[in-house]
UniProtKB/TrEMBL annotation:
Annotated region (Disordered), positions in chain: 37-57, 129-149
Protein name (database record): DUF4890 domain-containing protein
Basic and acidic residues composition-biased segments: 45-57, 129-142
Keywords, alphabetical: Signal
Organism: Hymenobacter glaciei
């Protein structure tokens, strides 16, 4: 009787343990690399600013319809901004309040230079996309609540 009860308990625990085991995310197709990078976050080390600027410029070119000259200028601007941002972060460290005015001035300079590169239509589209991306789209980033009928 005790052996049977022991075997049933062991079987139940084994079954319960395997049913709660996590499975690896299987990603296929074009998102496989992105998914792998997402789950490996923190294990990569610092990213290359030039690659990041190139990636973002390419994304902006696709979304805003930039020509080759605009894309090159935007990439150079993004790289300069990243380098300046890194310098300011190193200068002020975790004390963000101390460097706030300098960081705001750098951001305003970046926006002015970007506005000079893009056409007014492209800049307006970028502002719209930026607003939607940050949850400030047409509904202000708020969830809609359905009224009960």
């Amino acid at each position: 009787m005790k052996k049977t009860l022991f075997l049933l308990t062991a079987l139940a625990l084994t079954t319960a343990g395997t049913s709660f085991a996590q499975t690896a995310v299987q990603a296929t197709g074009t998102n496989a690399k992105q998914t792998a990078r997402h789950y490996a976050k923190g294990k990569q080390g610092p990213k290359d600013p030039a690659k990041m600027a190139d990636h973002k410029a390419g994304k902006m070119a696709k979304e805003l319809g930039l020509n080759a000259d605009q894309e090159t200028k935007v990439e150079q601007l993004l790289l300069a901004r990243q380098q300046e941002s890194a310098t300011l972060k190193a200068k002020y460290g975790t004390d963000r309040k101390a460097g706030r005015t300098e960081m705001k001035a750098a951001h305003d300079r970046y926006e002015t230079q970007l506005k000079a590169i893009l056409t007014p239509e492209q800049y307006a589209k970028m502002d719209k996309l930026k607003g939607e991306h940050h949850g400030h789209g047409k509904d202000g980033g708020k969830m809609k609540v359905k009224a009960k009928a």
